[in-house]
User: Fold this.
Amino acid sequence: MWKPQGMLSSELVYSDGLCEVHQTVVGPFENNVYILRCKETGDAVLIDAADEHDYLLELARKLDVRFVVETHGHHDHIQAVPAMREAGIDVAIAAGDAAMLPSYDLILDDDIALSVGRLSLRTIATPGHTPGSMCFSVLGTPLLFSGDTLFPGGPGNTKSDIGDFSTIIRSIDDRLFGAFDPETVVLPGHGLATTIGTERPQLDEWVARGW
Assistant:
């Protein structure tokens, strides 16, 4: 069951027999923060400790968050990282972006399965927005957390010192469009959800426009 997004407070936006996803929007850049929870065990993971650390810690305690994964190291996605670690919650990020965090506990490799209760959260290296950008899929579900790699209508911004347009296009084409079904629900780091099937036909247009 998928519910439309756009809420201003924490809300259950996805639920099936295996898991549920809670979403909230925090900070001046309106970052999406997701909490993926295993229904069988109650264990959960928080995706992107972006901002408003007191509020996110409250949610983490309420939903039994065991660890945090970061989609990338940009400033607006990591403001609550120190508070999470101080509360005893481990924070993980890909090696390519680790130096962008003030602190972290674990390095994420590509194509590994992280246990969230009985769930398996798979890491997918998708460089381009940043060198260490990473997406996460939930095995056995249609869920794909895309961070700032893929949005409705195009890739994430690459007009920075560490971004690269050709790299993000290759990541999207090979690692996302080439690997996931059209029905896959894409949950981005900002804004509304989309699907692989909605975005895939637009790839050539993105390449032609250059952003």
